[in-house]
Amino acid sequence: MNTVTAALLAGGKSTRMGRDKCLVEIDGIPLWQRQLDLLATLSDDVVVVAPTAPAWCPPTVRWIADAAADHGPLGGLAAALDAATHERVLVLAIDLPGMTLDYLRRLLAQADSAVGVVPLIDDLFQPLSAVYPRASRTAATARLPESDKSLQRLVRELVSAGQMHGIPVEPRDLPCFRNLNSPAD
Fold first, then answer.
1. Rounded CA separation 134/87 (Å)
2. CB under 8 Å to 27, separation ≥6 — which residues?
3. How far is CA 75 from CA 36, 81, 96, in A?
4. 161: buried, middle or exposed (CB in 10 Å: 19+, 13-18, 0-12)?
5. SS3 of 106, please?
6. Could you report how far apart the first and last alpha carbons of the chain are, in Å?
7. What's the gap between Cα 91 and its chain centre?
8. Topology of 5-177 in CATH?
9. Better pLDDT: 21 or 135
10. Contacts for 28-32 with beta carbons within 8 Å, 24 or more apart?
11. Residue 61: which region, alpha, beta or left (left: phi > 0; alpha: psi -120 to 50)?
C-alpha cells in the first residue's frame, strides 16, 4: 500500500455531460467518492488533480492543480507525476465508473518503479487508467508547450523508450473502460 501514489484526474469540463461528472451518482454514490474509495484501498498517498480545488475534495486528500491550464489530461498527468511521493503513479480518471479494485490491483502487479503499464484496447492505449513510473514526468512535462496534447502520443513515446509497456485488455475487463461522457452513457 505504501509503494504507489494514486491520482484521481478530475479536471474535465464535463461539456457533453452538461454538469460536473464528479457529482454524477452511480448507485447513490457520487463518482468522486467511488473513485477515491478505490484509490484509497490501494495507496495511502492519494491526490486529486483538478484546475481548482473541488468543494467535494475531502480534507484528508491532497489536491494539486493541473500543471498547465486547458491542457486536458496531459496537464493533470504532468502534475500528478511531479507531485508523486512514490516511484509508481496509478492514474484513474473520474469518468470510468466500471473500473474495479481487482483490475487496478492487476495493473499494479505488472508495473515496477522503472516500467509502468498501460491497458491497450485494439490499437488504443487507455492512459487514464494506467501506472506510470515517476520518471516519466520529464516526458510529460516536455510535452506541455507543444500543440499536440495527446496522451496517445506521449504513451507511445514512453513505450518506445522502455518506460511503459502496453497490456491487452481481456474481453472480461472491457466494462472497466466504459467512459461516462454524456447523460445517455
1. 5
2. none
3. 20, 10, 19
4. exposed
5. helix
6. 33
7. 3
8. Spore Coat Polysaccharide Biosynthesis Protein SpsA; Chain A (3.90.550)
9. 135
10. 30/56, 31/94, 31/95, 31/97, 31/180, 32/8, 32/56, 32/57, 32/94
11. beta
Domain residue ranges of the chain, discontinuous segments joined by +: 5-177
Residue ranges of the alpha helices (H) in 16-165?
A: 31-42, 72-83, 101-109, 137-143, 151-160
pLDDT digits 0-9 by tens, 96-145? 999 999 999 999 999 998 999 999 999 999 999 999 999 999 999 999 98
What cell was used for 6? 494514486
**How far from chain centre, in Å, is Cα 135?**
16
DSSP state of 49: E
Other beta carbons within 10 Å of 145: 8
Cβ atoms within 10 Å of 160's Cβ, excluding its own? 9
Q: Are 62 and 20 in contact (CB under 8 A)?
A: no
Separation CA 175–CA 89 (nearest Å): 23
Give pLDDT tens digits for 42-70: 999 999 999 889 988 999 899 998 887 77
